Amino acid sequence: MEPIIQESELPPEPEATRRAANVTESSRANRGWWDRNADEYQVEHGTFLGDDRFVWGPEGLDEVEAELLGPPEELKDKDILEIGAGAAQCSRWLASQGARPVALDLSHRQLQHALRIGGPVPLVQADAGVLPFKDGSFDLACSAYGALPFVADPVLVLKEVRRVLRPGGRFVFSATHPIRWAFPDEPGPEGLSVAASYFDRTPYVEQDEEGNAVYVEHHRTIGDRVRDIVAGGFRLVDIVEPEWPAWNTQEWGGWSPLRGNLIPGTAIYVCVRD
Question: One GO BP annotation here (predicted)?
């Protein structure tokens, strides 16, 4: 039987490059990428993420043990915004602690997976740079690898998060550890040698034949992140660099036990709105 799609009909692989990408292009590209790849992402990582776990990154650091948002018993009756929620796994865990989470994501398809899994969490499709909430709507905000690695203007997002938080509110977000940008995104030995400048902030872009971006990721150094957080109106109280645990034997893209035991893969920023 002939395949439904002939090999010649498949779209060409996007070209990987480093070039400038502004706020609009980054948002449009990443919305499309996550809509196209949400199914594969949830199939590949859904078991690790669970339906109602709060995992901060590929290392497997769980909020149950980390308590970066605060002790679980203090989450009860808190209004919490999850940004870049994907299938809302973290929000479901927050709801199980008695919190009132709202799961926001740029991708419609990711939120369809949240609907598929189900649960009591309200879902909102929106850009993190233009949050559709009133000032002071939330006690806490969180983002596990959501939004911040993909936006061209992180200060804009941070200011928006600060706006919707109440005084004393905490925002905790995780992203790829900046040092990883100096190394190839490979889980094996080839990913252990420096191949690029840590100080090169040029975005990583995948683009189609016409040069239109179909995926964009932005690099910020540790110093950049600290300055962004301060410029966004927050006080930085901690940076957590999870170590690779012995129980975690899986590879996730460029994350692996080999690399995780030698260099950090995730940075988690704990911020307070005074």
Answer: methylation
Bridge-based pairing of strands 165-176 and 266-272 is antiparallel
d(CA 268, CA 254): 18
- CA-to-CA dists, residue 265 to 39, 173, 252, 258, 259, angstroms: 24, 14, 11, 11, 8
**Any idea what DSSP says for residue 72?**
G
Write out pLDDT tens, residues 51-80.
999 999 999 999 999 999 999 999 999 999
Structure tokens at 21: 């990408």
What is the C-alpha to C-alpha distance for residues 98 and 94, in angstroms, rounded to an integer? Answer: 7
Is the distance from CB of 181 to CB of 194 less than 8 angstroms? no
Distance CA 207, CA 179 (A): 24
| Pairing state between β 79-83 and 138-144 | parallel
In the chain, pLDDT over 90 holds for what percent of residues? 95
DSSP string of 145-156, one letter each residue: S-SGGG-S-HHH
- Please report which helix (H) or strand (E) contains residue 96, including its range: helix 89-96
Angle subtended at Cα 16 by Cα 13 and Cα 21, rounded to the nearest 5 degrees: 120
Whole-model pTM: value is: 0.95
Cβ partners under 8 Å of residue 249, min gap 6: 257
